[in-house]
Design a protein that fits this description.
Four copies of one chain form a homotetramer. Helix content of chain A is 22%, strand content 36%. Chain A is elongated, with a radius of gyration of 16 Å.
């Protein structure tokens, strides 16, 4: 890949998500299991910023599966809150991508999280990312 | 298919489901959108009673998609309630199956619902059920 | 309430929702049970357009619960599709509101639905809407 | 609390959960965000084994909120798999409980996870567990 494209690689993405009623539990808080959908959404957008559509990747036989994840819930998030969700690529190899995430409501940090995704084929077995894909998931520094 | 197997076709199924915390909304009630998961579960079991595993049907290229559905919520259902969910096949053609459902908590009816499923292939286009599958979805009366 | 405000009542609302990966089933289609979350989202926004925040209504002891609903799935919706969701108030009484909904992807209608909500108090018992709330849920014609 | 009851405290719980169709993603795998519902279910049962119903605790003003969690997904889990979910209390203080979890399908470990719950009041502020509750969440060793 040329330097030009490489230098355009985007390693961070922010989206705003309005919390749905159905996502909240009996305490009126966003259920802790739903946060992973938000992180998934921001990863979808991060890929798009780099020219990839995850839907097309899957159609072409490249899948990312979550291998591990962790989350700290600092403050609760409530129904109808507008949540700023930020993802950053922090490390990558040919078969894995590490992201960190944080979330904030009206500027106050509510959540910190991290995940490791593995790149697999249609059979679920580990596979190498293409040069292009790898480049875009390396936070702009594919050669590191 | 032979009369013997046909006469064994089962048109009704009951399962018991314990309501999860995550399924309840801020009122503490089972969210109305989650009911469809319960109906899906009882359909899975109904097929099993007739010797089919939906997972295997999909692997073989036969899918059932919901074409229409309706539900009446007579009484709320709460977290940790044990819900008796009943499904019945009420009508079938070679390409569609109609089910009715009801739910009850400690013997008291909470919910009445109905759905029409269409049989489609991997491409999403309508397809005919096999004789065997059709037989088992006809409430024991495949020739009607 | 004055004629001025009444004439501002908004009976229709449109939102755009990007389909999440987690919302799709093994066929890659938006799961039929998830549609109700989308309809709930558009109702939240419809109330806002009329000056109400559902979160505040609940805090003040007014709840809307789904009493019945129905949906026709005309075409599948897929992961990453941008869905235009439209809700309209079609009928209202002091204790109930009827909405119809439709959804479209790139201009093509995918879904038609309807629901009846009941207004209840914290104890789950039917209650009358306030004049103001009733006015805004009457499609701009509160006196009909 | 008497020694008798204390010695009955149960620190581990196992449940079997059948994976729902709606819980699986486009790969046909149980979505990583849904695992937390399974862990929540087994915690509900663990409390019951010790004589508490979480629904009643909430009604009485005692809530457990997830403060942090982590999970490793060793093998995928599929629709209609029967999953054995195990939870164990590994550490407790008057305001927090640490659980570890693992999941297995047909005897093969698929998942390892951990969480820390905080005990809070209706206002979301940290609160001390009652003696009785604390005792039952201490893995049978409340005095350690």
């Amino acid at each position: 890949m040329g330097d030009e494209k490489r230098s355009q690689a985007v390693g961070e993405c922010k989206i705003d998500v309005r919390v749905r009623y159905a996502e909240c539990d009996a305490m009126g808080y966003l259920h802790h299991g739903r946060y992973w959908e938000y992180f998934e959404m921001v990863r979808t957008e991060l890929l798009k910023q780099n020219g990839f559509r995850y839907r097309d990747l899957e159609a072409a036989g490249t899948f990312f599966v979550v291998y591990k994840c962790s989350c700290r819930y600092l403050r609760p998030i409530r129904y109808d809150d507008l949540v700023r969700v930020t993802a950053e690529v922090v490390r990558t190899t040919r078969t894995r991508v590490d992201h960190t995430y944080h979330m904030a409501v009206t500027g106050q940090r509510t959540t910190e999280a991290a995940s490791t995704l593995a790149c697999v084929g249609r059979d679920g077995k580990p596979t190498l990312m293409s040069d292009e894909l790898w480049s875009c998931t390396t936070n702009g520094h594919p050669d590191e």
